[in-house]
Amino acid sequence: MEFRDLKKQYQIHKKEIDSAIQDVLLNANFIGGNRVEQLESELSKYTNVKHCVTCANGTDALQLALMAWNIGKGDAVFVPDFTFFSSGEVVPLLGATPVFVDIEEDTYNLSPASLEAAIQYVLERTNLKPKVVIAVDLFGQPADFNQIRLIADKYNLLILEDGAQGFGGKIGDKRACSFGDIATTSFFPAKPLGCYGDGGAIFTDNDEWADLLRSYCVHGKGTDKYDNVRIGMNSRLDTIQAAILLEKMKFFDKEIEMCNQVAEEYTRCLRGEARVPVVKVGMTSSWAQYTICFYNNKEREQAIKFLKRNDIPTAVYYRKPMHRQEAFKGSRVIELDYAVTEKICDCCLSLPMHPYLGMNSIREITDMILKKD
Ligand SMILES: *Cc1c(COP(=O)(O)O)cnc(C)c1O
To answer: Which of 13, 139, 216, 252 could lock 232 by a disulfide, CB 3.0 to 4.6 Å apart?
Structure first.
């Protein structure tokens, strides 16, 4: 059994994907070009956001967004304590200070109440300037942007939506990557919309920021690549990856629907045995992960061992809260309350999740979990 079955997806769509790749090889145009432009326009239409700028990966996308806002020394950037390392990594990389914020127990996403407490702490006890909140669409469900927007407006913060896991999710009929002042996503193979290598994209309605992003991702270019007006990066999406993504977008919504059916069946079988993931009313998840939470650490560890013995792959996303990562020791991390994150890190477990996980496999997995002790 596969944790995320990318082979199956390729087998089903082999003909179209092979021919899209072949096309790029025959044209021998490997960087930029018409495929990349076409993808940006499709992604912009899909999310209903004015500008889409593709780049090399989801981490660069976050960094480029903070660069466009000129974030640096003395700035506080609020980041959920429970997320992939990248969401926080880019902050000290630019000299700013990450302030980690606890999450909501039911959705695993940033807690608006804890965000407000963290902002007040920074204002009252430090010399840092609160500038940005990086709200992550964790495991596929958009963060609570209605509440987060109210707080951001109250304290004059910009919202950077990290939609690396959330692409394809929705609040009402608005899609993920349309909620932040700038939003980013990743096309890493195992993400909801994955390519065959690294890739990323940045979204914004703001013309000025879009121009800056297009400059920063190509060596700070001015009128062209050899006219350099600022220090930037080399962060571009390969043409081959764009061609693959254009094909994959054709069946992306169908795959999300299939993931939702898988999630529904998991939840039906596991309710009562563990805490099952909650999708808030009005929200749609793209199910980057299906993550349950046991009632204590011992139960979780038992389940991992038992499932492994029976050849069922699982993963712990994430074992360590951000505020306890060694790498952040140098940049000052402010001591706030992280009780929910601590508990979730001890008890969470992500189960195999992909569109092609059949009912039989789901039953096999859930039966094992029910039998674990
Ligand atoms: C995967 C991921 C990223 C980084 O994306 P890459 O393309 O691997 O650089 C950032 N944030 C979150 C929440 C992610 O899951």
So the answer is: 216
Weakly modelled stretches of the chain, pLDDT under 50: none
Q: Is the pTM of this model over 0.85?
A: yes
Please report, in angstroms and rounded to a whole number, the separation of the first and last CA atoms in the chain: 22
The ligand 1 atom nearest the CA atom of 165: 15
Question: In 3D, which of 280, 259, 243 has the Cα closest to residue 165?
Answer: 259
Of the candidates 134, 144, 137, the one whose C-alpha atom is nearest the C-alpha of residue 65 is 134
Q: Phi/psi zone of residue 146: left (φ > 0), alpha (ψ -120 to 50 degrees), beta?
A: alpha
Which of 64, 62, 102 has the alpha carbon at shortest distance from 80?
Answer: 102
- Angle at Cα 75 formed by Cα 70 and Cα 81, nearest 5°? 110
Q: What confidence score (pLDDT) does residue 330 get?
A: 77
Residue pair 42/189 in contact by the 8 Å Cβ criterion: no
**The tokens of 82 are what?**
């429970």
What is the spatial distance between Cα 278 and Cα 43, in angstroms, rounded to a whole number?
28
Separation of CA 337 and ligand 1 centre (Å): 25
What is residue 372's predicted lDDT score, i.e. its pLDDT? 75
> Which atom of ligand 1 sits closest to the CA of residue 191?
1
Which amino acid belongs to residue 141?
Answer: Q
Signed CA dihedral, 248, 253, 254, 258: sign only: positive
